[in-house]
Specification:
The complex is a heterotrimer of chains A (428), B (170) and C (266). Chain A is mainly β. Chain A is built from four helices and 31 strands. In chain A, a hairpin with a 5-residue loop joins strand 15 and strand 16. Chain A is globular and about 90 Å long. Helices cover 61% and strands 9% of the residues of chain C. Chain C is mostly helical. The chains are: A mainly beta (428), B alpha+beta (170), C mainly alpha (266). Chains in contact: A-B, A-C, B-C.
Chain lengths: 428, 170, 266
Amino acid sequence: MNKKITSLLFLSLLIFCSASYSLEVIEILGGRANQIAIAVSPFKEFSSQTDTSKVHRVIESDLDRSGLFNTLDTDGVSNPPSNDLNINFTRWSALDAQFIVVGKIDQTVDRIRVSWSLLDVYKEKTVLSMEYAGKPSQFRAIGHKIADQVYERLTGSKGVFHTKIAFVKKINDDKYVLNISDYDGFNVRTIMNSGQPIISPRWSPDGKQIAYVSFEKKKPVIYLQELATGQRTLLANFKGNNSAPAWSPDSKKLAIVLTYNANSQIYIIDSDGGDIKQVMRSRAINTEPAWAPNGKEIYFTSNKSGGPQIYKLNLEDDEVTRITYEGKYNLYPSLSYDGKLLLFLMQDGGKFKVAVQNLLSNQVLKLTNGPYDEAPIFSPNGHMILFSYKDYGKTSKIGTVSVNGLKITPLAVGNEQIQEPTWGPITN
Amino acid sequence: MKKSLLLTVVVATLMAGCSTTELADSQPLNPPFPELASSSADGSVDTSGLGLDELRGDAKLSNRSVYFDFNQYVVKDDFMDSIEAHAAYLKNHPGAKMVINGNADYRGSHEFNLSLGQKRSVAVKEALNTYGADDSQIETVSFGEEYANQECTGAKCGEDRRADIAYEVE
Amino acid sequence: MKIIKFENNYELQANLFSFVIHLTLLIFIMFTVDWKTKAPHFSEVDLWDAVPTQVKKVKQEPVKKKSIVKKKKVAEIKKQKVILQKEAEIKLKKKKAAKKKVLALKKKKEIERMQRKILNQEKISKLQERLLEDEKLENLQEQLREQDLRKKERLALEGERDMEAGVNSGELERFKMLIQQKIHQNVNKQLCGLDDVSLIFEISLMPTGDILGTPKMLKSSKIGTCDEAVERAILQSQPLPMPKDKKLFRKLKGLKLKFSPNAINE
């Protein structure tokens, strides 16, 4: 009798359990390339001067340019909050904001102190709170730092808003300069000038040097220039052409292209100029080497199948594999920092466009529309691409495109021919 | 009321424990940059015995450019006559040194065009070889698209797809 | 952070309380309700007519004797007597004959009656049989009807109940799809890397489509920003499309959401 009761009890419990906890299941497959809606409220300024340094605009532009954020218009916001206390979340929620950044600037003649917070509107809580101080002239750098923190917290990836870029500017047929600037084109300065063309500048992964090809000796030769001192050394001046320098991930070697009176072939040389060895040997053109982040493979362009295509060379066993198959003209390879994406230039319907290929699925995504886009290079976190394009078909300019293809933003660095950009590393 | 008070306390503690990050001094505005070596010629060259009048006078020898089709580096028959003449000149003047500059039009990447120009330069050299010219007298270089017309369209771009023969003495 | 912990405590208490209530109810049901464990017992009824067992007795009227009048009369009376006696004898004989007849008739009747009785009995037994069969049939039909009813009741539990309410199970699927579409639109898969990841969330809803409390994560993608992005997508999708019908809403008020942000969904 006891047994009967217990078994009945158990059974009925089961029935009860299943009856009350059998929830409807809904499966949601995939998702969208959405943007996080964020409102960067104007920072309240407590200053002794009426300074118009808009830190919040720097943060806004940064997040906007990345393509992962939809920055909401906060110009009409009356009486912006100066900290995260007593925030009227309903007001921000009405703007469809998912996150807000608020802050204040305390400014004296030679010093500013910026305290700010990042808040989650749905959860109505503070996510981050920090303070930065510096000279008033550093307000952009502070804005970039804040944007980096927000970016990192919300996307999980390191922010690159504090990084630098370099590019070539052709002032006229007899004047070329190599410039570096903030990643967004502010604070430009020249680090080298020449009467002959400069091409293929490449920032070393350790951030200390820039390699570039100069025609000052009436033929292409490779220089390495140290940024801190301005000192440069001639890395390669062999017979024939010396070009296409590509830094190894540890900054100790470079892959370069030499011709030695024959066709372009790939070599690896130590960054101090020693120990050179040839790694590609064929009748075809082999050029534009680019290291994989694991340091074991080099991607390059070859025309052995007719038009230029991208191949991969395994440095350990010399095996060569073809990587690009779409279209007849694919070149200018480079890898994302995690080795998952290949960035390159493709000719599509007669137009030159920037594209990425997922190296696992081999899916290709076109990021720009051309017609004369060139020289694409990844940001250090792989989320943005810097490239050159022809403005109105004539003047060469540079701009960024987000890796999801959603946002193309030009860089205002001058009205001359701007070309051949390179991106410096993360430094914090 | 209680909620906001709690929040205040939490935030206050956070703020209190929060350190202010000082920004490092930004880099100097005018970093030193390198002196460039002058690009003038090294010194005088003995030009006797080089038959410069021949070089300047002859019709075929004054033909210094070989033109190519898009993405191609095959030397067309039209240019063979001139190449033969240049080969003969080199053979007759062992002291003469030639540089072949390869070029490409602006379309595509700078580096690939550098290689394409190089291919054209080498193609001309190999043609010269078939007529008996020696490699020791020839250097092949490429300028790629660097001196090309960046705004050319259609047939005009063909002018940039060429290899130029130049002699050291000139 | 503290505010959130608070909510968790309430949740725990609520769950415990709910469990206790359920257990109590269960035990209550177990011991107080009269569970019918035996099959209903049908009493069998014997149908018999009340059959007479007695034969009616014929009453005989006593013959009255007349007082003898004087001698003459006596002789006459004797003669008459003799005649009477003879008449009486004849009458008696007649009576006897009649009696015999009656008896014979009676016997005949009795025989007939007996026959009829037998016939009746036969009829009755036949009737009985038929009745029994009819009963059996009825029983069977009754059983089938009950089975059918139980089956219908079962179906009603799963979906037929909706029929009563005027909607069918297609509506449930429709609302599930609407919810799926709305949430899908808000899932920012860019924050989930490139590899295959999956997440599971559980939510409680109000009839307005707003979420009660916060979504509960049952399975993490192991990527912090991905977990946050999916939770944000759920919160962003409020109010979720909810049916007006109460019975249908009850099915949807607790949902288990399974996500695979990097799956191809073409």
